[in-house]
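Agenda item 2: XIL complex prediction
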Amino acid sequence: ESTLAAAAQQSGRYFGTAIAAGKLGDQQYTTIANREFDMITAENEMKIDATEPNRGQFNFSAGDRIYNWAVQNGKRVRGHTLAWHNQQPGWMQSLSGGNLRQAMIDHINGVMGHYRGKIYAWDVVNEAYADGNSGGRRDSNLQRTGNDWIEVAFRTAAAADPSAKLCYNDYNIDNWSWAKTQGVYNMVRDFKQRGVPIHCVGLQSHFNSNSPYNSNYRTTIQSFAALGVDVQITELDIQGGSATTYANVVNDCLAVPRCTGITVWGVRDSDSWLGAGASALLFDGNGNKKAAYNSVLNAL
Ligand code: XIL
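Presented output:
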């Protein structure tokens, strides 16, 4: 096959990218994105600060630009993200307790209601677990509303759009030996046992020297899948752009039937949140295919 999306489709998977609304006028960018990818995530435009800048006043203009571009070009959309400690609007940052809990519920209903029936999978909760060795929750204003905030978010989401897959998404849950991975695994197992609606786990998979790819990644994907959820690689980038590591990631996903797709976090190195110098993506700053691109295409 000659594109990432077509190659992924051979095994029933998708290959996606993050898109920034402000770059939809860049023809080199849209040409590559349209040609190579079949799943789209808004890099920032569906986050809380973008979609509810004032409490109860929703703004979907930038999110809809990305959604419409994707659908007009025959692509599906992942929703990112509904409940998160980062990129909260100021009004939400200053809330706590029952007031914040209600605002979270209202936000999920407002955003999922707007996109009801249109989204392949939502990252319902993003980055709720702590870094380091605790294996426990991250301290945040949402966590301080009560430990049940995550399951409340998922139950709210299931009612707001019954057609979307509901994902828990996080970084540094790629390495099976890490406490954070085990903490999230235990939560997903508990949710499945108690019937809390959860359908997928998103492995962000931002690999760098502090959190490098490890060959136990396949065990992580297999272990989550064995709980009865899909696994999606949602924000892949690899600092330094190793073609070998990119191939390893693809091979590990393809080894697990419930690993349903891979999304890279940007198109060209110059589009990466890590900066062009990180060389973390599949196209260089001129839009040329890198060695990592060919490695991924061959592995798919
Ligand atoms: C990043 C975006 O790429 C940046 O443009 C923005 O300034 C900050 O957020 N984990 C996530 C993504 O879930 O939403 C983050 O995206 C990267 C880390």
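Discussion summary: The pocket of XIL is lined by residues 43-44, 126, 171, 204, 235, 273 (CB under 6 Å).
Owner for follow-up: CH.
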